[in-house]
Amino acid sequence: MGAEIVEGLRWLANQRLLRTMAVLIGLLNVTLTAALAVLVLLAGERLGLSSVGYGLLFTCMAAGGVLGAFLGDRIIARISATWTIRIGLLVEAGLHLALAASRSTVVVGFALFAFGVHGALWNIVANSLRQRLTPPALQGRVASTTLFVAAGGNCVGALLGGVLAARFGITAPYWVGLVVAIGVAAATWRVFNRAAVTRAYADPPAAEQQRTPVP
């Protein structure tokens, strides 16, 4: 089993597109979970919301997720997978900026709604790329490795959010999240270029490549 895990990790490390997506989501999960960990304090102290209002903020995000899942295929086909990823990175940054700088419930609610849409679209693109590019024998290992990175980011972020808020103020996790999101977007923008993503979808899936006899 150890050898199989290492094989999956090694394959993912050598696949630039999927490796970048895994690392990217791990980093963004750190800042996102840090942000959500103190959102209840932000909602009460800066937005003046009750427990019902706080719940409505998450309802905004859930509504965005439902809309994104329902219209996902059409949106991605219209703007392309490349721009789905790139715009999603900007939405991540915009969410942190709204939470850090705005005292408007409407602005924050809209930012969470947009993030919900982005999350649904991102899952569609990320999962389709992983399933298309990963050989069948490695599907489970690559998926679990990606999940491990994402969940690891969540664990770190849950601790980091409270530490930053306690030491530097309630908006500190959001300003840090904004800086990280901008940095991640800048560092990975060219990786998700139209040619690379289009080639990933245009080439025969890994499953077909394995079945195709080599002349």
In short:
The protein is an all-alpha fold and 215 residues long.
How do the strands and helices of this protein lay out in sequence?
Blueprint: H1 2-13, H2 16-37, H3 39-45, H4 51-79, H5 81-101, H6 105-133, H7 139-168, H8 172-188, H9 194-202, H10 206-211
Instruction: Determine the oligomeric state from the structure.
Output: single chain
Based on CA inertia axes, which overall geometry fits? Answer: globular
Total beta strand runs: 0
How do the SSEs run, as a string of H and E? Answer: HHHHHHHHHH
| β-strand amount | under 5%
Structural class, judged by helices and strands? mainly alpha
In round numbers, the mean pLDDT is: 88
Radius of gyration in whole Å, from Cα? 19 Å
Share of helix, binned: over 70%
| Number of continuous helical runs | 10
Report, as a whole number of angstroms, the end-to-end distance.
33 Å
Please summarize the sheet with the most strands.
Answer: none
Outline the low-pLDDT stretches: 207-215
